[in-house]
Amino acid sequence: MEFINYEVEDMVGVITINRPKALNALNSQVLDELNETLDSVDVNTVRALVLTGAGEKSFVAGADIGEMSTLSKAEGETFGKKGNDVFRKLETFHIPVIAAVNGFALGGGCEISMSCDIRICSENAIFGQPEVGLGITPGFGGTQRLARIVGVGMAKQMIYTARNIKADEAFRIGLVNAVYPLEELIPAAKKLAATIAKNAPIAVRNCKKAINDGLQVNMDEAIVIEEKLFGDCFETEDQRAGMGNFLEKDKEKKLKVVPFQNK
After folding, report:
1. Is 69 exposed, middle or buried (0-12, 13-18, 19+ CB in 10 A)?
2. How far apart are CA 172 and CA 111, in angstroms?
3. 111 is annotated as an active-site residue
């Protein structure tokens, strides 16, 4: 891989988009390498992923404008599909993905962060969908995911004006869950991923699927999705061990209780 680094520590994988000279901009090669990296993740041993960008200035500054500038209509649509396919794979990936946004997250950078389950960012992070200023629309899911995350009105304002927002405003509107000093960002992301990784993996995966699938349908259908995934957890080793440990601890607590005696 030329532009993607992938490391595993305990049960947490860290994917780094490593194209700092171009502020980690997404070209076709980066998208292909990211797609291959996701295919290589062993979800039986890795229980959570962190996605970040190399350097201190940029998470992902956007899609590569140099590559896009000469595309025809058909080529533009093909490029959009390539990005959407990879981002959708990220969004529906079996295990949770945390975006650790270190700097610019513009255009495709904002869009890839929104394909992750959870977003945290550094104090110098800047988010935006500047595409209309370039004569195009967001093409990697920005018109769809931003409205779902921050609400229709705010999404339309950000997209129509092409205005960038800083970390504090991203937190205020719910685009990110937390803001950290730059040096604390990756440790915080790894700690959050490790906390997730300690929980029952089948249950965590089913929770992700229940939330994602349920958001696409009405409440009556969503509840049925939850019921099936809830039932799917039973008779698993995780469920037996988790409930067994709880009952054993509860039993031990009761044995330690000394009845009150009047003297």
Report:
1. exposed
2. 18
3. yes
